[in-house]
Amino acid sequence: MKIISxxxxxxxxxxxxxxxxxxxxxxxxxxxxxxxxxEKKWVLIVSTLFGCPVGCLMCDAGSDYRGKLTATExxxxxxxxxxxxxxxxxxxxxxxxxxxARMGEPSFNPAVLDVLASLPDHIPIPGLIPSVSSIAxxxxxxxxxxxxxxxKKEYQGRDFQxxxxxxxxNDKIRDWLMPVVKWDLAQIAEYGSLFYxxxxxxxxxxxxxxxxxxxxxxxxxxxxxxxxxxxxITPLNPTYRAKAKGLRTGLDPLSGVAGKKIVAxxxxxxxxxxxxxxxxxxxxxxxxxxxxxxxxxxxxSRLNNGYTYDIQ
Length: 312
What we know:
CATH architecture: Alpha-Beta Barrel
Number of domains: 1
Order of helices and strands: EEEEHEHEHEHHEHEHHEHH
Largest sheet: 10 strands, mixed
Radius of gyration: 18 Å
Number of helices: 10
Strand order of the largest sheet: 1-2-3-4-5-6-7-8-9-10
Helix content: 25-40%
Shape: globular
CATH topology: TIM Barrel
Strand content: 15-25%
Low-confidence stretches: none
Distance between the termini: 17 Å
Number of strands: 10
Mean pLDDT: 93
CATH superfamily: Aldolase class I
């Protein structure tokens, strides 16, 4: 793996582009959550696919798919960041969150399971928190079966974050936003209830709020148990693909006003709700979910609210 480009701010987030051979490139991210220093919480976001075959309407990574990373190639991203920041090659941090969420739907790559199985020995620190984010493709049933077995074997009594990207309570709209055959909401609810244990964070249902995209808390509450699932509300991040499809954020990242009614609806049903806006500077860096520097480099146009940092 050879780092060929990087951009960002050391005190917020850095995005790296690496060449992996055979004309394939991968992106990965390290980020902080101010005011917490790296020693308190450090987040690594790694890729599992070279691009992505799905083509979600809000995600710039859904193009130019070139296959799956090996377990070694996934670990190389993690090791590069750890070795860059810590001379002992063992991260001295209270919380180290490793998200499989930069490029690619992780359930399409069985090597993700191998990496997850190896992480407790590879990075033997108490604060290790793996995080898998998925749209729950229907063809990935075997992956999720093995993920459940692995979580019970390797992470029993430890934290493990599982997130499902839902985005709408309307099945037809979900199919439009994420154009691949997926589990329906009832299947996600059933699996999440099997996966969850009290030592870990509740299963996250993520909704990137978009204007004119329906989200009915009542429909979600009829299927999902607030004792098992939490709700995460985020803005729709600025991406070239979202702009081309006419998608606009339904959550003002400065005030959060547009999301208050929906948050109240979920609260009334007993759900824990996390409104996750984060650092706006990450949109300008291009380190947020759905953003993809290689699409920015290929684009003839420019977004005025994203990807504004120089890429070295």
